[in-house]
Amino acid sequence: MASEQQPQSVEETIVFDNVSKFYGEVLGVNRINLTFQAGITGLVGPNGSGKTTLMNLMTGLLRPTQGEVRVLGVSPSQPQNLFARLGYSTQFDSFPGGMTGYQFIYSYLRVHGFPHGEAHNLTWQTLERVGLTDAAERKVAGYSKGMRQRVRLAQAISHGPQVLVLDEPLNGLDPMARAEVIDIFKDLAETGCHLIISSHILHEVDMIADRVVLLSSGYVVAEGEIGGVRTEMNDHPIQVLIRCNKPSTVAARLFEHDYIVGASLHDDLQGLEVQTRDANRFYSQLNEIVINEEVDIETVTVADADVRAVYQYLIGNEGEAR
Amino acid sequence: MTSAAVGSSTKPVSPNTSGLDWGLIARQIAGILRLELRRNLLSRRSFGLYFLAFSPVGLFVIWALSPATEVLSGPAEAVAQVFAPIFGGFPPIFLGYLPTIIFLSALITFMSLFRSEILEHSLHYYYLTPVRRWVLVTGKYCSALISACCVFSVSTTLLFLLICIPFGLGDASQYILQGPGLGYLTTYIGLAIMACIGYGAVFLLLGLFFRNAIVPAAFIWAWESINFILPSLLQKISVIHYIRTLYPIPLPEGWLAVTTDATSPWMSVPGLLIFTALVLTFAGWRAGRMEVNYEGD
Predict the structure, then answer these.
(1) Among B99, B163, B164, B238, which is disulfide-ready with B89 (CB 3.0 to 4.6 Å)?
(2) How close is the nearest chain A Cα to the Cα of B37, in Å?
């Protein structure tokens, strides 16, 4: 991924090497080359873009038609080596019948191989972390959608994985629970975990993800840090909002340069919106103008450097992202 | 919610990547058994097993109360004339306790081990644990085998007692405890277990390959039914062949039967176990190749 972080070894990253997945003749994902480093990576794309396929390939639920996936140096076809270090909260809203929240987490920790005492302690710690201790002895079948989402998250993190794959983990959560779950993600990322999160809710991806992978129709259309991705999109000039006392002077001076595509004054004549193809040169020029023309600047804001704008430019209105 | 540290502070299972960690595998199988025994014996899934296993009990009670018992001289004749053919089946129609009831129960119990979880969309929880696929197959198979063996041991014992008791507790206890009765009963329970072992492995494998295994199961039932008229070599590719040679009271095979050299008990039991091990190995390989996406299920 386009990142300024220190490059990590294969044992510390998740690598997709020319991976394709076809369902019969239907394309799932095609020729994916990606490296996920520690931190939070958002997978963004419309329905059917290949987000879940990518996650299922990462976790071995699907096998690539072509190419190879390595998670911290381990192939997903070796569950005994992978799943002690990986947790996956899937989109499947289904559970083994007749189980309480406690039994659900505890039983699969026993399948992991944890002895009773450790499994019991981990279960309570995890349920406490996701705020389900009060509902621990209730049947999962009677949980609300948000509670089911949280118990799935609890199951995915209960064994202390280094890699956490989360398919639409914020779906069904109320705003309070959403904020709490996001805090959990941030805590985990700070401990060096890899979090791969898919979401339709773009402003939340923007808020939590260090990097994004944008998918469309099975292809990666962009990847990297949001700012970096936006800067590299030369087809779409960057829009900058400037609030100042001399907007027309600033506009006139900026128009002397060919990397300025357009500028329009705000109705209150206290600001302007500038479109530029070269952000770096624009900012140096703006500094010069401010000094030379004695302009008082109130704010300078990039209007379209978030995930939503990048998504709109690259994928358009396809899908249901919001 | 709290910020209690989970995950990074806990010690995850550390698999021995260089070889098999048998202690860990034993704990994982125990974990699978915990989950599966509950499902096999205490959930809705278990109704079919109980119904089939105990459905003959009512018929045996009616028989025990009927005057039909008066034409028989005692428990020994009743076991030979009634219990043995009902347990072993009546060729050329493949009906009987073992070839029909146990066959169908194994079909329901073992085939649903993977199939029902695919239909419930809950198999991925197993597939996201650090459990080798053959360990998962072994754990699930053992759970179903334990369940079936418990149920059929009780059921076979009940049926055997219902055959003997109409002749009086004295005669019955003398036949069972001082005569050959206990030996016969133990052998019939052993045969029921062997049938579960053999058919169970086959049906577990079918459940990994087929969404609807009625057709392949019907084919196997037909194959087992015509086993006694097949050439000698083909007879050996079946479960019933190995079991039939172990019946303590031999059954007539009908005028169509092809006479073959009987397989000795010393070959039958290991033969069936080797056959089962091969089928389970194949099932483990298949489970390892299987994708979990529930599409079309």
Answers:
(1) B99
(2) 12
